[in-house]
């Protein structure tokens, strides 16, 4: 544990949420629950520049600032550190465990953000789950209401919500190596910048130029950048949106590129970065993230900067309330 210096060092390196994306919605008691530090430490951080707002005479903080601050604090006690270590414990396993078939139950519920129900002509959308894109399979599928329509890319429903998608699926993987020297050079150049990973709103993540200029590379920004570089080098590449299974059920993005051997390789520099938050990750895992399909990724039908879910009612587009639960079936 690094003590006060660890907190101050983390604050000094923190990418603070910019004014156009700040949301001071976390009160001081909840902030202390996230950080799991003493009150005087939080006071020290505020005095050193941690963003906060006085709302009705009480301190309030941005939830992304708190998460990113805690994750890099080396306190060993904060909720983000403990949660990430637990969720990434599988990273200690042997390579065979990264590709074996894994079965999961999933449950996604979409609700209208209006407190008194939907407006007129409600419509709903959710990206289609595509475990088959990396060798997996959709095992079962059900919806509420039952008249939800499924197209190649999107699950749609017209009518009152909430809308629920549930079932089970299988993810698989395959160890692959990025063979093209051009592609490898592009990836190595990107990694050499040692960008910081941070959680933040998806709308901010998608501002690739802004993020990279700030030294931050969330998954959407990294994927957009690498897709463009791969294509400029003459390779077929797309970005993919999906989830990291079991890691707080995080939405995630990566790049899929056709290598010199004609095989599609998944390039996931963000997943590689996350290995640093695991306890004693396998030494070969970071390299496997550049080329391999890993069974902890669930692809969907949309690109990196696509909206996972959408809702419209009363003639207005609204961000739906979304509750996503993904649980592995069997051993942890």
Model description:
The chain is an alpha+beta fold. The protein has 2 domains: 3-87, no CATH class; 90-332, no CATH class. 28% of the residues lie in helices and 28% in strands. The protein has 11 helices and 17 strands. It has helices at residues 3-13, 28-35, 39-47, 63-71, 79-87, 181-192, 202-205, 208-213, 219-232, 269-274, 285-288; strands at residues 24-27, 53-55, 58-62, 102-111, 123-127, 137-144, 149-150, 154-158, 163-171, 237-244, 250-258, 264-267, 290-291, 297-299, 309-313, 316-318, 321-328. The strands form 4 sheets. Strands 7-8-5-15-16 form a 5-stranded antiparallel beta sheet, with no helix packed on it. A 5-stranded antiparallel beta sheet has the order 13-12-11-10-14. A hairpin with a 5-residue loop joins strand 10 (237-244) and strand 11. Helix 4 packs across helix 5. The longest helix has 14 residues, at 219-232. The two termini are 27 Å apart. The model has no long low-confidence stretch (mean pLDDT 93).
Descriptive keywords:
globular; 2 domains; 17 strands; single chain; five-stranded antiparallel β-sheet; 332 residues; 11 helices
What is the gist of this entry?
With 332 residues, the chain is α+β, with helices and mostly antiparallel strands. Helix content is 28%, strand content 28%. The chain has helices at 3-13, 28-35, 39-47, 63-71, 79-87, 181-192, 202-205, 208-213, 219-232, 269-274, 285-288; strands at 24-27, 53-55, 58-62, 102-111, 123-127, 137-144, 149-150, 154-158, 163-171, 237-244, 250-258, 264-267, 290-291, 297-299, 309-313, 316-318, 321-328.
